[in-house]
Amino acid sequence: MKLVERFLIELARAWDREEQPRLQVLGSTALMLQTDFVRATKDSDVLRTLALDGEVAERLLALAGPSTPLARRWSIYLELVPNGLPFLPRVPVWHEVPLAGAPTTLSIEALDVVDVVVSKLKRFSANDRSDIEAMVARGLVPHDHLLKRFVDAVDVFTADARASDLPRYVENLHEIERDAFGVDESEIELPEWV
After folding, report:
1. Given pLDDT bands bounded at 50, 70 and 90, which one contains residue 116?
2. What's the distance, CA 75 to chain centroid?
3. Counting Cβ atoms within 10 Å, is residue 46 exposed (0-12), middle (13-18) or buried (19+)?
4. Residue 5, Cβ neighbours under 10 Å: how many?
5. What's the rounded Cα separation, in Å, for the pair 65 and 72?
6. Are 86 and 53 in contact (CB under 8 A)?
7. Would the pLDDT of 161 be above 90?
8. How confident is the model at residue 65, as a pLDDT?
9. Which of 30, 120, 141, 159 has a 20 to 30 Å separation from 129 between CA atoms?
């Protein structure tokens, strides 16, 4: 069993509220929950939805946030990511992840592998690049599907102040196309004002 799975199982065991929140997991944790991929990570990113506001969010962070006993035990902590922050298609795809031995106090969903790859094209750190390359190498990211989901995310971002960042995301996509897929760069249309 992977470290992130043990961390989430212990969080589910510690959850002591009537609410049964749905944790929508992003980033490398989502990849590890759905594939054979393993790498070190210090945090488990969860999308902060309306259901995870207020007392529910406070309790989750009190149990598993930075510097909590749970975080110190597993060397990983829960981080709530604001809903509008990730670079995602209009309707992200989530997959329920059953955790063997975990009580049903929490529902865990992982962001689809291709949508995780799209989201990682925003920050595009060294870890993001290696995560993307690992998913492509495993054959889990069909190029045509990646392009479709990427263009959908671009459409979402053109409607607000983040549109000025889109050329950089396109450059990041082109780098992955060249280096990981070994294909020519795709033509991505951006609005004239970007």
Report:
1. very high
2. 19
3. buried
4. 18
5. 10
6. no
7. no
8. 97
9. 159
